[in-house]
Amino acid sequence: MFVVSPLLRAGILALTGDGARSDEAARRVRAVVIDELGEVPGETLHLPEPRDDRLRVVTELLHEEPGRGETLAELGRVAGASERTLSRLFHSDLGMSFQRWRTVLRVHHALFRLTEGASVTDTAMGCGWSNPSAFIGAFTALVGQTPGRYQAELRGRGE
Question: Residue 100 phi/psi, 5° resolution?
Answer without folding.
Answer: -65, -45
